[in-house]
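Lesson 9: reading folded outputs for more than one chain in a single document. The general rule is that every protein is listed as its sequence immediately followed by its structure tokens, and records are never interleaved. Here is the first one.
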Amino acid sequence: MTGTVLAFDEHVGLGQVRTDDGAGYGFHCVAIADGSRAVEVGAAVSFGLAAGLHGRWEAVDLRPLPLNGS
């Protein structure tokens, strides 16, 4: 799936990503694939989904998408 990071609180480690079709999913900083535990709000990302601890789908394996022309 692909989408955009809508929000990310680096202090808490939680964020929200919205798919291109408008669905929203939460994520935890450990779900960022490069291990940095940080992501820019507004970044285009690819990600997968996994069942979370509270019965909701969560974004996992977040990876930044290359910028156009890169």
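And here is the second record, again sequence then tokens.
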Amino acid sequence: MKKRRLKRKYRVLLNRIKALFCIIVFVFVIYIFFRLIFGKSNYIESVSFSNNYVTINLVDKEDLYCIISKNEPEISDKWIKAEFNKCKIPYNIGNIYIRNEEKIIYNSNKNVYGELVNEDTIYVALDGEYNIYSYILGNKFKVKNDYDNKIINIDENGIIKGIKIGSTNLRTTINGKTYEKKVIVTDLITKRPSFYDYNKSYLGCNKYTSEENDLFDTILKNRINNVGYKTRAAAVEAARFLTLDFPYRINYFYENGRQTTNKVDGEGRYYHTGLYLNKNRFENLTGSTTTSNKGVWGCSIYSYPAKRNIDNGLDCSGFVSWTLLNAGFDVKDVGAGWSDDADLTDYGEVVKITKNLSISNKIKVGDLLHSEKAGGHIGIIVGIDEDNYYIAQALWFDEIGVIITKRKKEELNTEFPHVVLMDSYYKEDGMLTNMW
């Protein structure tokens, strides 16, 4: 009798276990079915954003590679291999692509995920545009913007256009999450042109007040923080700001010296964060050739190498080192290269430019270009399109001053024999874009 009752209990328990197992299997099958039919993708589990990086969490697949790109990438491009079903990629704007060893197997197909720029205040040029999203990727989202439409307009892609000088509070709600920013429209900076404007006037002497200089510095810092301080994108943005957003051309000045050699500061170079536009910046200087030889950008001072008075500005390495310093990289007040002392060419991998290299994807915006002109000349790449490189540099001939020049890819080595690849120095790309 006891044995019969015990067998009955075991059968009931076994049946319950079987039923529970069937329920688990059924739920799992339904989950897989709904994931395949309604899920985000057959490859992506989720996407997260942190510290200028995008982490793409993949469904359990082996030997996959990820990239974020505006245009369909090539297999030969710089893909990130998934580790533990995750790809960690520096911020970029574009679509997610996934490939295996042979071909591209997934494209996020321009679906959009939105996060607003980091800074609480956004500065927009009058009639200019500014993208309020720090990142565009992922799933479709619902967005609602509240603002003064007499000051700004915002299109469906998150592009602000400055309509009238003034300020407005911007309240943006994305999928139920609300962000609040202040937007200031100003004519202090100019609408960023599609290409460098060679008709831009040279900066005059004492053009700006101390308050205006402070505002320039604030806007520059704001721009850099939004793309990622201490990233490759920050260096590119600093160079773009001085050549494209600043209303005047900075003159080329044959330097009187450097902080690292004879403690000369601000004469053809200005190794400080911010712009050198008002005499109250004199207190930043660490030394000069004479106490009477001080003058901000645009004011005439004596150049010892040129043996005449010239409007103060930047020389080639002065411009590049200023750019890197404002991006968060302290390269010191050094020259273009190749001296026995520290030079800008010492901060990356110097590679001889061949035609094959120049048309590959190994050279990136933010890399430095070097030539032996006049004992050493250097510039920084601020744009790359299908056919051309765009180089920000301070020139002493032809188009004099801090400008952007264009060079066809296959002809790059005719002007610059060497590129300084800066991946190991920047470490992170930030919100890097090939063009502005």
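What the second record shows: The chain has three domains: 44-107, 111-187, 244-426.
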